[in-house]
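Lab meeting, item 3. Inverse folding demo.
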């Protein structure tokens, strides 16, 4: 059932071209990494059926894995809207976390109102190395709440991210992942069979791939 949901969401992302696979014409990420895949989950906001699917399935993940959640926090900017939708559906308080504190006004990094000591579930849209996501977790902990875990729409499943989440003691559950995308893309002919090995090799060491 879990894999079915992962592949279903992977297909929805491909249908709206939120996931693009170009093994022969790789993208360049902000980090400088060359990548055969580009994922833009924010596109889901423009499609009501997909937007509702993401909202409800993230809620299901929270209810099944983090039933003790007392509040929701979204990670800026990609998950601000998703987090708000989830919090509204669950009837829970909501806040979002900036990459860094504002340089004016109150200087807030956590925007909204969370009760000190509250059990908070973090909503993220995309996990690559995990760095920005875990910075948000640290900001919430400094704010004075208990982060009980994180749910996200998609993860590349990089070993560096898995290790970072383990070190930070943050349990991560995602709607879909890179493996599900490859499987679904291959089954539906979205990519050629010859490209599968290229895509698998990239995930092993993305920082050096294509150099």
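The presenter then showed the designed sequence:
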């Amino acid at each position: 059932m879990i894999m079915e949901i992962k592949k279903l969401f992977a297909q929805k992302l491909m249908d709206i071209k939120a996931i693009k696979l170009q093994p022969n014409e790789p993208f360049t990420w902000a980090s400088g990494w060359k990548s055969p895949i580009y994922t833009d989950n924010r596109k889901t906001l423009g499609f009501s059926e997909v937007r509702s699917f993401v909202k409800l399935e993230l809620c299901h993940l929270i209810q099944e894995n983090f039933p003790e959640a007392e509040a929701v926090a979204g990670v800026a900017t990609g998950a601000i809207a998703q987090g708000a939708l989830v919090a509204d559906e669950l009837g829970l308080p909501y806040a979002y976390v900036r990459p860094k504190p504002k340089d004016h006004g109150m200087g807030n990094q956590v925007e909204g109102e969370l009760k000190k000591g509250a059990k908070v579930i973090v909503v993220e849209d995309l996990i690559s190395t995990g760095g920005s996501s875990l910075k948000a977790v640290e900001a919430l902990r400094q704010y004075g709440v208990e982060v009980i875990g994180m749910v996200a729409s998609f993860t590349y499943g990089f070993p560096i991210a898995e290790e970072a989440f383990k070190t930070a003691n943050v349990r991560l559950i995602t709607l879909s992942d890179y493996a599900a995308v490859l499987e679904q893309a291959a089954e539906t002919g979205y990519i050629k069979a010859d490209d599968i090995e290229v895509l698998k090799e990239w995930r092993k060491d993305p920082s050096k791939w294509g150099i």
